[in-house]
Amino acid sequence: MITEGRTKLLVPEVHSVQGPGKINAGSVFFNEQMAFNRDISIMLLRALERSQMTVADAMTATGSRAVRIANEVPGTEVVANDFDANAIPYINANIELNNLSNVTANHANMHVLFAHNSFDYVDLDPFGSPSLFIQSAIRGTRKRGILAVTATDTAPLAGAQAPKCRRRYQCEPIRGYMCHEGGLRILLCTIAREMGKFDMGMRPILSFSADHYYRTYIQIESGTTACDRMLDQLGYMSYDQKSLERESSPVYDEKHKLGPFWLGPLFDKDLLARMSPEGMAREKKCTKMLDIWRNEIDSTPFVYDMSELSSFTKLSPPSLDVFIEKMNEVAPTSKTHFSPTSFVTLADLKDILAAYREVAHETPAPVPPAN
């Protein structure tokens, strides 16, 4: 028995506490580290400020996310679905434990569930890649609804297993310091291309990289105009690790061979402003991440990293805060959630390097320890 947020949960005694974890035969999966992921769902759904909302947690396992939503988000009617019959006793126990009447356990293949039902909010959080399930999840999401997708297959998406990324996502991943942003943007591109098959568009309202996974929340937009607007935000990248030059392009050509990626915004800043971390299971982490997302520049991919600049210039990296302060004299610059040593800026590369060299030269050399 654990407590997460305001919700009591019965979970398997043997469960994952960090990393992606693994599924044990005959056991129902639960990952304690994903409490932050579930916190974000609660904060976002509250911030939507809808009086009523139907919710489907497509692969709910113990029902932790579904039961938390039902218990902590007013006005929700939740279906906690899982194809594993072993999950149903856990779901029912957690419903009873919290004395809830607005959530029901459902034992069905998610493809069948979404062939016959649609919801205002659909949560797709599979073990591994979501690529096999995205199209069905889109079918199950109503017009103007919200679709949330988690991908834990970060190695293929971030380019460590490029052949697998090509097979699953039909994209060429990017390596190096931009790999996690690239992985997230490949996930968004994949969802967008599936949306296009339905002549629908999407608008990302919160997309991020955390721990061992990528996560995105998108709002569905109806009509071919919205669809075309969405597809116009897909494109390719070039990246020269020797010169640090990077460039996006709407078309694939001899130079721009990486991708395709989603090149549009990741956040709805108005929604982020309404999200509150109060009472969350990982309140401190939620507060920290909300602050970063709210201040993160969200108009130009891809990130730069201090280690990348250090290696290129052969200079020790200065304080990121000092460097960003200097950069903001040149062009808007901010920290990014992708890495504690990365930043995003509207400045040209030559201006970035000039500012870095200036600040790095001004930074005092470290004093060796006394004998």
Provide a concise account of the structure shown:
By secondary structure, the protein is an alpha/beta fold. It contains 14 helices and 15 strands. It has a seven-stranded mixed β-sheet, sandwiched between helices. It has a three-stranded antiparallel β-sheet with strand order 11-10-12. The protein has a three-stranded antiparallel β-sheet with strand order 13-15-14.
Record the SSE blueprint.
Layout: E1 2-4, E2 7-9, H1 35-48, E3 53-57, H2 64-72, E4 76-81, H3 87-97, E5 103-106, H4 110-116, E6 119-124, H5 134-139, E7 141-151, H6 154-157, H7 162-169, H8 179-196, E8 200-210, E9 213-222, H9 224-231, E10 234-239, E11 246-249, E12 258-262, H10 269-274, H11 283-295, E13 304-305, H12 306-313, H13 320-327, E14 333-335, E15 342-345, H14 349-362
Helix pairs in contact: 1-2, 8-9, 13-14
